[in-house]
């Protein structure tokens, strides 16, 4: 049974959605590919304490990896891409091409981009760490400004980066 809560964050209100297996969604307000609210289940502010703590630690610079259980639903290809996203170290980035090569299919760049765009668990599954081949801040469902904020949080040298 799905349930959800709202969590205040420096990048706006996040809607966390969980089922019996774990966290299945973490969505920014106004993000592309955000499901309708009716899909989130009933409001339940209890049961999200561990996620709230980890997000607070992340945004204060104390946490680099999340331990919450993720139960995102997707095709086998998307789940493989999302697993690669979780392996990108804090403060680092990879390109869509890097991920396609890691999957063993260098021609799958667009498919990797599609899977990245439909990542249902933002921040915890760090799709914001994927950039264009030239390092540009392309394609983030939560908006490029939020992507820059997350990358600058993880690597303060990016705080002076310009948006492409």
From TrEMBL:
Coiled coil: none
Annotated EC: 2.1.1.63
Localization: Cytoplasm
Active site: 127 (nucleophile)
Gene Ontology CC: cytoplasm
Gene Ontology molecular functions: methylated-DNA-[protein]-cysteine S-methyltransferase activity
InterPro entries listed in its UniProt record: MethylDNA_cys_MeTrfase_AS (IPR001497), MethylDNA_cys_MeTrfase_DNA-bd (IPR014048), MethylDNA_cys_MeTrfase_DNAb (IPR036217), MethylG_MeTrfase_N (IPR008332), MGMT (IPR023546), MGMT_N_sf (IPR036631), WH-like_DNA-bd_sf (IPR036388)
A GO BP annotation: DNA alkylation repair
Substrates-to-products reaction catalysed: a 4-O-methyl-thymidine in DNA + L-cysteinyl-[protein] = a thymidine in DNA + S-methyl-L-cysteinyl-[protein]; a 6-O-methyl-2'-deoxyguanosine in DNA + L-cysteinyl-[protein] = S-methyl-L-cysteinyl-[protein] + a 2'-deoxyguanosine in DNA
Domain of life: Bacteria
Start and end residues of each Methylguanine DNA methyltransferase ribonuclease-like domain: 4-71
Keywords: Cytoplasm, DNA damage, DNA repair, Methyltransferase, Transferase
Family the entry assigns: Belongs to the MGMT family.
Extra remark: This enzyme catalyzes only one turnover and therefore is not strictly catalytic. According to one definition, an enzyme is a biocatalyst that acts repeatedly and over many reaction cycles.
Protein name per its UniProtKB record: Methylated-DNA--protein-cysteine methyltransferase
Organism this protein belongs to: Sanguibacter suaedae
